[in-house]
Input
Amino acid sequence: MKKYKPQKKLLGFANYKMQKSIKFGYASAILHLAPYNLSGVNVCPMASKGCIKSCLNTAGRGQMNSVQKSRINKTRYFLKDRVKFLDHLDREIKTYYKKAIKDGLKLNIRLNGTSDLPFERYRLPNGKNLMENNPGVIFHDYTKIKNRCDQVLPKNYKLTFSRSESNQNDVEDLLKTKTNIAVVFNKLPKKYLGRRVIDGDISDLRFKDRKGVIVGLLAKGKAKKDPSGFTVKL
Output
């Protein structure tokens, strides 16, 4: 494992879509790690070829070399000393929670902005995961790991399954449940796979979505020209 530089801050707020949350009464923060195997270890175990090529890792500020280096350092920090990383992250969450309350807002966190890790399994020194240790905070993520959607999660952690060109069997299984499924489209339909499609670009507050819907996301960046089937073209 290569060395990492100490990170002063792990969470970020500089995400345009997440900033939309303020008008709904939420302060939103996100953890961006280096996706797929950019750090030397794959933190997106179910990433498809289309997902990898269409990843929003380089969108916006992600185009900056300094941001990419920071994400790689954060990932190596997590891999080298998970307990210390989680403790660091927990302290940040508590700081942001106090600030959100002071500002009259609720706090929600996305831990997998550009990764797909089972944070519900990772324990702090007190034996709790981040969600259990911060019951006043709402956590939510997208995932392509189906068994994460099948298990009982902390009450304040919500997952939305993410469709790709290679996980149709998982999608069909989850259509039998009320698990919400995110799908990238070139244009939003009213229905898809027999389900109502909602506009997932209005905000990033996935935990507020009604159950049993398709979360429609318009293709952005490289996904607009995706040839793999990752982007559903209508």
